[in-house]
Specification:
The protein is an alpha+beta fold. It contains 8 helices and 16 strands. Strands 1, 2, 3, 4, 5, 6, 7, 10 and 16 form a 9-stranded mixed sheet that branches. The chain has a 7-stranded mixed sheet with strand order 9-11-12-13-14-8-15. A hairpin with a 2-residue loop joins strand 3 and strand 4. Bound molecules: coenzyme A.
């Protein structure tokens, strides 16, 4: 007899926990879920975010994952969430689609090589990657040069977020619209400063008058032999603040020997803004990792669901929304 129980914990502003599956007092499966505040313009709502599900290898293909997800949905609907969403991998995606989740589409992958020659040398055995990087580097250099006189902002690396987030959240939400997790100061602290998983670098930019102009969280790791950085989140007071902030981050990452800078976003506006700083958007036909998002809407509040939330372009997601980095 399988038992499914909800263990809560987590981010101060969310009701979070694990749905756990037990068979004869043995823990055989776990599905974490954060129930968080979301907003889209002036509309506030609540949504459940499912993160890395795992079922013990000896207990797979017995419906445990499906039961865990259904139990999470019941918990989310009980807490008045309007939807449950997740970013599945190739293994879990078929199961979610079978359970009636809507495929919202893929988030866009953007790359900015910092050491194109070193990358090409390391990855030359993979001709596709080498040619992508060569093309990307040439493209990036062509674009970034004209932008090098687009103004400057004092940028510092800090762990002091106070006052920054609250002031930048609103402008960022209107520059890059879509249904988004409300990124409050305590969300930023919980997600980046208090994370037990890794250290994030936080960059802040201020205007010449000392007002908040930009904020970004960056993670670094070595992946597939390449020193790789990830743009987890970025918030700005105006579009013009984004290039100088990114330029400064690139400078710091280059000094640290980072070879590749990656961003993943659902937002066309963010994609455009990053391309202006020399990021290259990987076309969908390139056979690299796919960043899927799926969602199921609460049938009890169907009329409150905005039509644009059924497509990826109606959401605002960055790598910070995903728990794997
Ligand atoms: C993915 C995972 C959670 C599935 O757990 P599970 O309890 O075996 O899944 P279920 O028995 O509920 O399967 C439900 C449906 O999902 C799909 N599915 C499950 N495992 C699959 C697999 N390996 N390949 C393809 N489809 C799969 C099938 O459609 C399945 O229905 P079916 O058995 O009637 O064909 C499990 O394989 C796992 O823990 N994998 C490693 C961790 C992981 O990759 N997690 C995903 C992180 S996002």
């Amino acid at each position: 007899m399988n038992a499914y129980n909800w263990w809560s914990f987590g981010c101060p502003e969310s009701t979070s926990g694990f749905m756990v599956a037990e068979v004869e007092d043995q823990l055989v499966g776990v599905q974490p879920m954060e129930i968080m505040s979301y907003k889209d313009g002036s509309r506030n709502t609540k949504g459940g975010l499912l993160t890395g599900v795992a079922v013990h290898p000896d207990y797979r293909r017995r419906g445990i994952f499906s039961d865990l997800v259904r139990a999470c949905e019941q918990e989310a609907w009980r807490q008045n969430a309007a939807f449950v969403t997740t970013m599945p991998n190739e293994r879990s995606r078929p199961g979610f689609l079978k359970m009636g989740y809507i495929d919202l589409g893929c988030r866009q992958l953007l790359l900015r090589p910092l050491a194109p020659r070193a990358i090409a040398k390391k990855k030359l055995s993979i001709p596709l990657i080498a040619s992508l990087i060569g093309f990307s580097a040439a493209f990036a250099q062509g674009i970034v040069k004209p932008l090098s006189h687009d103004g400057d902002l004092p940028v510092t690396e800090t762990s002091d977020l106070e006052g920054m987030v609250a002031q930048l959240e609103e402008s960022t939400a209107s520059l890059f619209p879509g249904l988004r997790v409300r990124r409050t100061p305590s969300w930023w602290r919980w997600r980046y400063l208090q994370s037990p998983a890794r250290d994030y670098s936080i960059f802040t930019a201020t205007t010449k008058k000392g007002q908040p102009a930009g904020l970004a969280a960056v993670a670094t790791e070595t992946r597939d032999g390449l020193s790789t950085a990830y743009l987890m989140d970025i918030a700005v007071n105006a579009l013009e603040s984004l290039p100088p902030l990114v330029r400064k981050i690139l400078e710091v990452l280059s000094q640290r020997g980072v070879e590749l800078f990656c961003a993943v976003t659902s937002s066309d506006a963010m994609s455009r803004a990053l391309r202006r700083t020399g990021f290259w958007q990987v076309p969908t036909w390139v056979p690299v990792k796919r960043f899927y998002t799926v969602a199921k809407f609460n049938p009890a509040v169907e009329t409150q669901i905005a039509p644009q939330w059924r497509k990826m372009s109606g959401w605002y997601q960055m790598l910070g929304d995903w728990d794997n980095v």
